[in-house]
Amino acid sequence: MIRFTPRTFEPGQEKAFRANDRARAFWQGQPAGYRRTATFWVTSARREETRARRLATLIEDSEQGRRVAPLTRPSERTGRSTGSAPSGSWQDGQ
After folding, report:
1. Which of 9, 49, 61, 68 has its CA 20 to 30 A from that of 34?
2. Comparing 44-48, 61-65, 88-92, which segment has the lowest mean pLDDT?
């Protein structure tokens, strides 16, 4: 049986995040599922350099009021709607 252990930021990572008020405010306003996934994305990296780079990306994106790209749906990244097919496609009957 495989058990999932919830991950948390290390004290130094937490301190870096808390030092940025705008990033922290955005972070706290996000759903718990996103916060868990983003925390895992940062802490699951094998190399310290990768964890540091991901944390910096998370803080920067949070400061800008956006979610990190690897955890964002493609339609949210491009601003396109996924609800309809492009014109001229088989769904238009053409």
Report:
1. 49
2. 88-92
